[in-house]
Design brief:
Elements (H helix, E strand, L loop, with lengths): L22 E5 L3 E6 L10 E6 L7 H12 L3 E5 L17 H7 L9 H17 L5 E7 L1 H8 L7 E5 L6 H5 L5 E8 L5 H14 L3 E10 L2 H4 L5 H21 L2
Parallel strand pairs: 3-4, 3-5, 5-6, 6-7, 7-8
Antiparallel strand pairs: 1-2, 2-4
């Protein structure tokens, strides 16, 4: 793998403050989603972003991130890839992460690529056909990174991921456009050896790539980091700016 599978660290973090400005919608009349729309004077016509979240799914922090992308001119669709079965923040007690991934909380709602891929495809289709997106970027946090990488073939032109998990080497090698990664110094899911291996793979793709390493932070910092910690706040803000400038350069 280019990054390890998700683990308990993927569910730990801090809920952020702020008022969300987007709207809850349905994609393909069945998938929950959140749409953040830029103001007319800032909108990048024909450009949009698909935001594929970590295992916490659609919640305050991920909505605020979608709103921030919209504030920078990008129509942003945050999609529920867990079929209503995202995990709560800071879950307590024993938990079988692998069982949740393979079967879901009720034993009949898996979160495997066979289940997630069609949801992502529906979201891409909606952005293109319903919202007029011609230049599609995609953002993946943790779990979501895998599905950014997997869906260049379906129309993603430019990708960005923060603290990726579950990405296979052959998936990363198959990307068909620019890809940027924000990595944490302390991350058992995307440790130094996986980061270096990813760099080797990206070099061979011939595509523009970027890997930024942020010191003093852990896995999840770009979504769930504690903004009261100076180093974490700085890294989170810089990782977001990394994404925006990447899209501004390669998507527009």
């Amino acid at each position: 793998m280019a990054s390890n599978p998700p683990a308990k660290c993927c569910t730990i973090g801090v809920k952020h403050e702020g008022e969300t400005t987007g709207q809850s919608i349905k994609v393909a009349n069945k998938h929950d989603a959140y749409l953040a729309t830029p103001t007319a004077d800032k909108a990048h016509k024909g450009a949009g972003i698909l935001l594929i979240p970590d295992v916490i799914g659609i919640w305050k922090n991920s909505k605020l991130i979608a709103d921030q992308f919209a504030a920078n001119g990008y129509l942003t669709l945050l999609i529920d890839v867990f079929n209503g079965d995202a995990l709560p923040l800071n879950r307590s007690g024993p938990f079988d992460f692998n069982a949740w991934l393979t079967k879901g909380s009720d034993g009949n709602n898996p979160h495997t690529k066979e289940a997630v891929d069609p949801i992502v495809e529906d979201a891409i289709k909606a952005l293109k056909e319903e919202y007029g997106v011609e230049n599609l970027g995609a953002v993946g946090y943790c779990f979501g990174a895998k599905y950014v990488v997997r869906h260049y073939k379906d129309g993603i032109k430019v990708g960005y991921a923060a603290h990726p998990s579950f990405v296979e080497e052959d998936e990363l090698a198959a990307i068909q456009g620019p890809f940027s990664i924000a990595a944490a110094e302390t991350d058992s899911i995307f440790p130094a050896e996986k980061r270096h291996r990813s760099e080797e793979i990206l070099q061979k793709t011939g595509q523009p790539y970027q890997i930024n390493l942020y010191s003093g932070v852990e896995h999840g910092f770009a979504v769930r980091g504690d903004p009261n910690k100076k180093a974490t706040r700085y890294a989170k803000e810089q990782a977001f700016l990394q994404a925006v400038t990447w899209f501004d350069n390669y998507l527009l």
